[in-house]
Design goal:
The chain has 299 residues and is α/β, with parallel strands linked by helices. It has ten helices and 14 strands. This is DNA-binding transcriptional LysR family regulator.
């Protein structure tokens, strides 16, 4: 019968690439780790690691068993976290992915507050502007702004944001300020590369779509904002990227008579996730930190 300490020894050995390093990480003697590995291999009836004087390599059986072993240990951690949550204590790892720009501008203080509230949690944060699948990407939860539309996921709304069409005073002084969709068509745009380049405006009960000419396409909102500040063109950005620049007058809102499509920030995670209590607590803490309405929407 497989024992959990053997699985722990196996995963630690793979992570550390040697039995000696795994023993140091686990606080055990090297001989104990070696015996636990051997016992696990006997229980499975297969060799998991090919040992040599220089290094350890996974056998085909080891490669097949490793993701299952990692999942077993992760589920054990999450089960322990669930028990802690029922007793009012949250602990253990929490892996979060978030967009780069939003993370840089808004997540530092919010995460610090959450970890002060729950010092037993060990958080890892990965900032990435690419699409991250919350169901299969290896994270416990993913922060995302925009529609979800995935039945595998729970999506908790954290905050809302308007999208504003903005330009620098220098750009408007040179090119004029458009006041209608027709006038807007002659202007240059800074577009977000990871979503449709369309600009959508609410017109009555439907949407009016414009496809502007792009001076720059980039997958980061902060770079988009900086390009607009430099006078390269207009951009449509959520207020959480530019609320300070609007207040100071460094950027000017361009009103063409119709409001732009809004943005919403969600925390998404798989429906059957074992760490749901930690994720919910994290979401609740973020909502308190952002406020309702969020501080980037307050006058």
């Amino acid at each position: 019968m497989m024992k959990l300490d053997g699985i722990t020894a196996f995963v630690a050995t793979v992570d550390q690439t040697s039995i000696s390093a795994a023993a140091r990480r686990l606080g055990l003697a090297k001989s104990v780790v070696s015996e636990r590995l051997a016992e696990l291999e006997r229980a499975l009836g297969a060799t998991l690691l090919q040992r040599s004087t220089r290094r350890l390599t996974l056998t085909s059986a080891g490669e097949a068993f490793l993701p299952r072993a990692q999942r077993i240990l992760r589920e054990m951690e999450e089960a322990a976290a669930e028990i802690d949550a029922r007793s009012g204590k949250l602990a253990g790892p929490l892996r979060i992915s978030a967009p780069v720009g939003f993370g840089i501008l808004h997540l530092g203080p919010a995460i610090a507050r959450f970890l002060q509230e729950h010092p037993g949690i060990e958080m890892s944060l990965d900032l990435d502007d690419r699409f991250v699948d919350a169901a299969t990407g290896g994270f416990d939860a993913v922060l995302r702004h925009g529609a979800i539309g995935d039945g595998r996921l729970i999506a908790r709304r954290l905050a809302t944001s308007r999208r504003l069409l903005v330009a620098a005073p220098s750009y408007l002084a040179e090119h004029g300020k458009p006041t209608s969709l027709t006038e807007l068509e002659g202007h240059t745009a800074i577009l977000y590369a990871n979503r449709s380049g369309d600009w959508r405006f609410a017109a009555g009960s439907g949407w009016t779509v414009m496809r502007p000419r792009a001076a720059l396409r980039v997958n980061n909102g902060i770079v988009m904002r900086d390009a607009v500040l430099a006078g390269l063109g207009l951009a449509m950005l959520p207020t959480f990227f530019l609320h300070q620049e609007i207040k100071t007058g460094a950027l000017i809102e361009v009103d063409i008579g119709w409001p732009a499509e809004g943005a919403e920030l969600f925390l998404t995670y798989p429906r059957d996730h074992g760490a749901a209590s930690k994720i919910r607590a994290f979401g609740d803490s973020l909502r308190r930190s952002f406020g309702d309405p969020p501080y980037w929407e307050q006058p």
